[in-house]
Automatic annotation (TrEMBL):
Gene, per the UniProt record: LOC101163670
InterPro entries recorded: PMP22/EMP/MP20/Claudin
Organism: Oryzias latipes
Region entry Disordered, spans: 40-60
One record GO biological process: regulation of calcium ion transmembrane transport via high voltage-gated calcium channel
Name of protein: Calcium channel, voltage-dependent, gamma subunit 6a
Length: 286
């Protein structure tokens, strides 16, 4: 009396291998042929002895080592994205300050600008470092007044310290930063597709997106700095001391990190590792 093997496939359905040809197979070839039929059924996609790996349409699956490297590079890129969002959303790109004694001996006025708005702040001279000649820094406690720029609504320039901002340069810097954020989103989608579908092809567009976003972020800093120089040159009545603040530091670090992350994705997308190509592995027998 023959016993029936009941096997469940990957979707959870019950399958009886060799239901039609079990008797004939066992009669013709004995138990070996029946075991061979069971082996051929399960040999296509094995789920025993380790984590099952899907295969792509190209026939090449993604190994666990490749997946770990992609996740590590993606973490590096995410750090750059977070720093970019932090820098773009804050208004501490540059600090402007006249001399401490320009207004009176009790209070002075300082300002800090970003891509979207500018803030003026009244500080007490007694709170400022005696060795500092200009008013500031802006982190000191004081009365603050922030207003959004009208570059993107009515097209008006802002006036601070009798100086006029340059609308075209400010808008260009803002548009570069927004376009870089868009490329970061596209790169993130490509990495998500690569990890979910296990297709290494998506690493190439992701690397291009992250590298271009890093370049655009650094270019936005250059354009913004040029807008500040043009702002200072618009009027020389009030001498101002200017210095780039911590938001620009976040943006600069983000641009470098995004470029490095994009290069990592590009290296992972190559069919052969450059390290193995330059230093091929030699067998001990040779």
């Amino acid at each position: 009396m023959w016993s029936t093997f009941i096997v469940s496939d990957e979707e959870g359905r019950m399958v009886a291998p060799g239901a039609a040809g079990t008797a004939g197979g066992l009669a013709g070839g004995g138990p070996a042929s029946g075991a061979g039929g069971l082996t051929s059924l399960m040999g296509g996609r094995s789920t025993f002895g380790g984590k099952r790996r899907r295969t792509t349409s190209m026939g090449h699956g993604m190994s666990e080592a490749q997946e770990g490297k992609i996740k590590l590079a993606f973490f590096v890129a995410i750090v750059g994205v977070v720093l970019t969002v932090l820098g773009v959303g804050t208004e501490f790109w540059v600090e402007l300050a006249p001399s401490k004694s320009f207004y009176n001996n009790q209070s002075c006025l300082t300002a800090h600008l970003g891509l979207w708005k500018g803030c003026t702040k009244t500080l007490w001279v007694a709170d400022i470092d005696p060795e500092r000649e200009s008013c500031g820094p802006a982190e000191l406690p004081g009365e603050s007044n922030c207003t959004y720029f009208k570059f993107f609504t009515t097209g008006e320039n802002a006036v601070m310290f009798q100086k006029t901002t340059q609308r075209n340069l400010n808008v260009a810097a803002a548009m570069l930063s927004l376009f870089s954020l868009f490329l970061m989103v596209m790169g993130t989608i490509c990495i998500g597709m690569a990890l979910s579908k296990e297709i290494l092809f998506f690493l190439k567009p992701a690397s291009i997106c992250f590298i271009l976003s890093g370049v655009l972020v650094l270019l936005a800093i250059v354009v913004f700095h040029q807008s500040i120089l043009a702002f200072l040159a618009s009027d020389h009545t009030v001498p101002l001391h200017h210095e780039l603040s911590w938001s620009v530091s976040c943006i600069g670090c983000a641009g470098a990190i995004l470029i490095v992350g994009g290069v990592f994705f590009l290296l992972l997308a190559l069919p052969c590792s450059p390290w193995q190509r330059c230093f091929p592995h030699k067998d001990s027998g040779s």
